[in-house]
């Protein structure tokens, strides 16, 4: 039976959510928290599998709590609670993190629980969602231009990052493949790049590939839950989409 922690600074909101969750007979509420700091303590002490987390709270916001939770070895599934006009809704949609809107509706709560239960135990998927969420709500700016060079010419070239169809890593090298057909080496790792690229446009789709969604033409199923992405204006017609990265990519592109 999945265990749930309710986090909201309003007692009436927690009570209302607890009452609605009563319709889920296979769920057990193990605790409540009134602020972000208490939420972190309860997560560490009670090890809930699912956390309903309010965004706007004293001491630590829901987003700050989520950032800390994502560092745990086995993070819980988080369902955010927010208002219709909350700035974070777009970030939730982008990262495929689930959310419920206030005032709560029974059907939406039940749907959120179904989605949360489907994610139980999928640690890597949860960490990927948190990574995209953290990027999406970041206040920092993203790369507009990038520097690269070709193996036979050490001159540095600068080009618009949106002209990159995809990046791919090969051993210690990372290559940027441009829509004009040129390929450049860039001095970065994929892990560093993904934090600097606009998360609305660029997605990591495989351990060795980042794609620009502007150039995605179609997606085809492959074996073992994996997919193949077909690209426009590319020297390589397809790149792999691994099962690990498929869900955030699918939800963001709504396919």
Question: What would you say about this model in short?
Answer:
The chain is an alpha/beta fold and 255 residues long.
Please, could you describe this protein's structure?
With 255 residues, this protein is an alpha/beta fold. It folds into 2 domains: 3-136, Rossmann fold; 145-253, OB fold (Dihydrolipoamide Acetyltransferase, E2P) (Beta Barrel). Helix content is 33%, strand content 32%. The protein has a 5-stranded parallel sheet with strand order 2-1-3-4-5, sandwiched between helices. Strands 10-9-8-12-11 form a 5-stranded antiparallel sheet. A 3-stranded antiparallel sheet has the order 13-14-15. Helix 2 (36-46) packs parallel to helix 3, helix 4 (89-95) runs antiparallel to helix 6 and helix 6 crosses helix 8 (243-253). The protein is elongated and about 65 Å long. The two termini are 31 Å apart.
- Strand order, sheet with most strands: 2-1-3-4-5
At the fourth level of CATH, the homologous superfamily of the largest domain is Response regulator
Please state the structural category.
alpha/beta
| CATH fold name of the largest domain | Rossmann fold
Low-confidence region ranges? none
**Any idea what the shape is?**
elongated
Q: N- to C-terminal separation?
A: 31 Å
Number of helices: 8
Second CATH tier, the architecture of the largest domain:
3-Layer(aba) Sandwich
Oligomeric nature of the chains: single chain
What is the arithmetic mean of pLDDT? 86
Number of strands: 15
Rg, alpha carbons:
20 Å
Main β sheet profile: 5 strands, parallel
Helix content: 25-40%
Taken as a percent bin, the fraction of beta residues is: 25-35%
The CATH class name of the largest domain reads: Alpha Beta
Order of helices and strands: EHEHEHEHEHHEEEEEHEEEEEH
How many structural units, i.e. domains? Answer: 2
Pfam family, one: Response_reg
InterPro entries: CheY-like_superfamily, LytR-like, LytTR_DNA-bd_dom, Sig_transdc_resp-reg_receiver
Domain Response regulatory: 3-117
Keywords: Phosphoprotein
């Amino acid at each position: 039976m999945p265990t749930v922690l309710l986090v909201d600074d309003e007692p009436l909101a927690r009570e209302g959510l607890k009452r609605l969750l009563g319709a889920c007979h296979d769920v057990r509420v193990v605790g409540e928290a009134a602020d972000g700091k208490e939420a972190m303590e309860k997560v560490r002490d009670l090890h809930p599998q699912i956390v309903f987390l309010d965004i706007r709270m004293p001491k630590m916001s829901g987003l700050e709590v989520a950032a800390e939770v994502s560092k745990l070895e086995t993070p819980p599934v988080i369902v955010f609670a927010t208002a219709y006009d909350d700035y974070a809704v777009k970030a939730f949609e982008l990262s495929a993190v689930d959310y419920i809107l206030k005032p709560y509706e029974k059907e939406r709560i039940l749907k959120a629980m179904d989605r949360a239960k489907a994610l139980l135990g999928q640690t890597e998927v949860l960490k990927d969602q948190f990574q995209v969420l953290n990027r999406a709500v970041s206040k920092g700016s993203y790369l507009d231009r990038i520097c690269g060079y070709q193996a036979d010419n050490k001159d540095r070239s600068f080009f618009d990052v949106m002209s990159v169809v995809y990046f791919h890593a090969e051993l210690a090298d990372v290559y940027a493949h441009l829509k004009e057909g040129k390929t450049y080496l860039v001095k970065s790792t994929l892990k560093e790049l993904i934090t600097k690229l606009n998360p609305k446009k660029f997605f990591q789709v495989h351990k060795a590939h980042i794609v620009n969604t502007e150039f995605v033409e179609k997606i085809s199923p492959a074996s073992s839950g994996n997919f193949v992405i077909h690209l426009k204006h590319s020297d390589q017609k397809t790149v792999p989409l691994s099962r690990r990265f498929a869900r955030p990519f699918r939800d963001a592109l709504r396919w």
